[in-house]
Amino acid sequence: MDFSYVDTVIAKNQEKRTALISILHDIQDEYNYLPEGALQKVASRLQMNTNDIYGVATFYKSFSLIPKGKHSVTFCLGTACHVRRGPRILAEIARQLNVKPGQTTEDKQFYLQAVNCLGVCAIGPVMVVDGEYYGGITFFKAKKLIEKLNRKKSGVKS
Amino acid sequence: MRMIKSVSDLEKWRGDIVSKENQYKMVVSVCGGTGCHAYGCKKVKKGFMKTVREKGLGQKIRLKFTGCRGLCERGPIVTIQPQGIFYQRVQEKDVNLIVSETIEKGKILGHLLYEDSLTKHKVTSEGEIPFYKAQKRLILGNNGLIDPAKIEDYISVGGYRALVKAIFKMKPDQIIDEVKTSGLRGRGGAGFLTGNKWENCRNVPGDIKYVICNCDEGDPGAYMDRSLMEGNPHSVLEGMIIGAYAIGAKHGFIYVRHEYPLACKNAEVAITQAKKAGFLGKNILDSGFDFDVEIAKGGGAFVCGESTALIASIEGLVGEPKSKQIHTVTQGLWGRPTNLNNVETWANVPLIINQGSQWFSSIGTEKSKGTKIFSLVGRVKNTGLVEVPMGMTLKEIIFDIGGGPQNGKKIKAVQTGGPSGGCIPASLFDLPVDFDSLTQAGSMMGSGGMIVMDEGSCMVDVAKYFVHFLKGESCGKCLPCREGLKRMDEILGGITEGKGDAESLALLEELAVIVADTSLCGLGKTSPNPVLSALRYFRSEFEDHIVKQRCPAAVCTPLIQYSILEEQCTGCGACKKICPAKAITGEKKEQHRIQTTVCSKCGSCRDICKTNAIMVQ
To answer: Closest chain B residue to A20 measured between Cα atoms?
Structure first.
């Protein structure tokens, strides 16, 4: 794997240790997850201990140390979505995709994620598919969206 | 863009912008809030751009892509000025008709107007809609008037007037006094007096000081800060610059959740523009005052809304809170005096400076001044963002503005204050909404989430939801929070599965008190509130789960069963078609049945059944 992108990101952030979270976000956007090699490179470039980098990478929920699927399906479980039966819809989606939230399907097509609030509470339950927001989600709507993606080829980061 | 160096520079710029705007005959604004995005406003915007271009109307019509207008449930929203026409649920296909009929002929399209669900009366303008009528939109109001990506739009509505006034006509102490006498309290949740915080920070000796804007809106069910940052970032920035000038800070940070990409983008654009205009950066307004702002992105940790954890996160560390024996105003970011305020608090500052503390303190109650934005969501008819004067009753907010329950169900409670707050039962809906009344009722104001719950919401399930949420978000530093919440989650999980026993509630209450008493930060200290308030007002629901093994709201899946009522079922087959578990059997036009062993209890059949034949017990 080519990690020259890490150099670009670190240069962009002026080699500041305080920009670590921002750097990790950029790396994840590029590689779709945080590859071990990239984290080691960050550690050496910022002259930090790899353990500390891993501490940050595992503390914050946005980061993933394993590759995500091509398409990202993010389901909101905020309070407003919860009282509008979000959890049951999510459970059904998970059952259909045969993964648990936080996992990627075996064919590496879908990464299913449950998050605590997406801040679009008025139109819950909310689901984000490849960066696009969808409101008033029912199981039926969700299923249709996923089926549509199955036919499409490219995925977008979210 | 111009470089502003004096009061007259700004006023001249404003005059030029306004006279240029007046050349347009009409302004068509398409709401670009995230809610409207979910309903397809991008396509509507593109449709308008295309039609206006094709018809050569570019000289006559100004197209604006504004921030969130609040009534998200009715999105995408399009307004036409100066007529004040308010169209809702506009789709791409409606665009041609709006241009040819409304814009060119002045005809109003009835099918796009807001219709009152009770009276069936259609209204044309925003002010006539009950949702907006009772609001006082001092902070949010400009969201619908300006394009957040254009500093000129903000200038045209009086933007940066407060900053110019503060720098040229006021001394830092005067600004602090003004904010102190206004009675402004922090909108992030705790309600600390903003002016006092500023004064404390100013009084700490030191050359390097920081101001931070907290836009890590982690409370589930709340999105006020997001809408402000996305829809009117300059108002927040202006507040921050005034604050920094008063406190003596030269550097600031806006800490934004990673989940809010549009807020990050709009804040960045606003910073760049403000720098170009001379409102930010070196030698602001040629006054010798330097102040710069950077954006710091969060990583999806709820605890980072807590000041010390947020500061650790900006420093690039794990977001663990620290003891507050020494306050952040004394020792905060990199050990320097740091003043942290919430997005909405900052946005209030220009208003106070422009209109004076007396005007500000005339709004609200004795101890809670000004307005507050709430995210009114959940099981209520009109969901969205509402801004009301402090002291308005819950009843007015939920029934007059929110329009009451959805689908004729009875409203049971409202949850305020997020995971640190609690549930307030309908019997207390006459309570005025201010910092102190809500705390007395066992909940709290919090950042402004207001999640309405009806008969279909189970309070045990809601309590479990919050404990489960906090269990996942606990940073793990203190044992009582880390382990206590886990045990509480287990007990509540047991109750919702019908495994609770006579001792469950006593144990739950005992744990709740210990977790609250022995945790370090606000997350742990307030974490038992949702459970304690639910037990205080809805104890019988807990007892039903334990003793009768039933969930009165039919939510807790292990305790419920779906069936089809013979007399109601028409055999249409809709439920059979939608059932993801393939648990429904029956021939067309004949009675259908649910195989309870296969049923996953997702409720899809109940949603789709037109004859209400699906029973849950």
So the answer is: B316
Pairs of residues, one from chain A and one from chain B, whose beta carbons lie less than 8 Å apart: 165
Residues of chain B neighbouring A55 (CB-CB closer than 8 A): 318
Q: Give residues with Cβ within 8 angstroms of B592, minimum separation 6.
A: B564, B569, B571, B573, B575, B576, B584, B585, B586
The C-alpha of A76 sits at a distance from chain B's nearest C-alpha, in angstroms, of 9
Is B418 in contact with B523 (CB distance < 8 Å)?
no
C-alpha to C-alpha distance for B64 and B29, rounded to whole angstroms? 5
Assign residue B472 a region: left if phi > 0, alpha if psi is -120 to 50, beta otherwise? alpha
Q: Does A62 touch chain B (CB under 8 A)?
A: yes
Other C-beta atoms lying within 10 Å of the C-beta of residue B532: 18
pLDDT of amino acid B360: 97
- Inter-chain residue contact A77 with B220, CB threshold 8 Å: yes
Task: Please identify among residues 68-107 of chain A the ones whose CB lies closer than 8 Å to any CB of chain B.
Answer: 77-80, 82-85, 88-89, 91-92, 95-96
Q: Which CATH code for domain A71-151?
A: 3.40.30.10
β-partners of residue B594 are B584
Query: Domains plus CATH for chain B?
Result: 7-135 (3.40.30.10), 154-361 (3.40.50.11540), 371-454 (3.10.20.600), 459-548 (1.20.1440.230), 561-616 (3.30.70.20)
Name B34's Cβ contacts closer than 8 Å, sequence gap at least 6.
Answer: A119, A120, A133, B68, B223, B226, B230, B262
Joined tokens for residue B526: 């307030």
Whole-number Å distance between alpha carbons of A103 and A97 = 10
Strands (E), A16-109: 71-76
The pLDDT of residue A90 is 92
Measured between beta carbons, which residues in chain A are less than 8 angstroms from residue B383?
Answer: 80, 121-123
Report, in angstroms and rounded to the nearest whole number, the Rg of chain A calculated over CA atoms. 17
Q: Do the Cβ atoms of A122 and B375 come within 8 Å?
A: yes
pLDDT digits (tens, 9 = 90+) for B236-273: 999 999 999 999 999 999 999 988 889 999 999 999 99
pLDDT of residue A158: 40
Q: Where in chain A is the domain with CATH 3.40.30.10?
A: 71-151
Nearest to B222 by CA among B349, B386, B103: B386
What residue has token string 């921002």? A22
Residue A19, classed as helix, strand or coil, is: helix
Which residues face B252 on adjacent strands?
B211, B293
Kindly state whether A157 is in contact with chain B, defined as any CB-CB distance less than 8 angstroms.
Answer: no
Q: Which residue of A has its CA nearest to B75?
A: A123
**Taking the CB of residue A50, how many other CB atoms lie within 10 A of it?**
13
Q: Using the beta-carbon criterion (under 8 Å), do A80 and B377 form an inter-chain contact?
A: yes
Q: What is the ipTM of this complex?
A: 0.89
pTM score, two decimals?
0.93
Which string of DSSP letters, residue by residue, matches B341-356?
Answer: EEHHHHHHHHHHHHH-
Q: For an interface test with A, which of B451, B466, B475 has the most A Cβ atoms less than 10 Å from its Cβ?
A: B451
Of B34, B457, B473, the CB nearest to A83: B457
pLDDT (tens digit, 0 to 9) for every residue of chain A, 158 residues total?
889 999 999 998 888 888 899 899 999 999 989 999 999 999 999 999 999 999 999 999 889 998 888 898 999 999 889 988 899 899 989 988 899 998 899 988 899 999 988 889 889 899 999 888 999 998 888 888 888 887 765 554 44
Helix residue ranges, H only, B404-477 = 435-440, 459-473
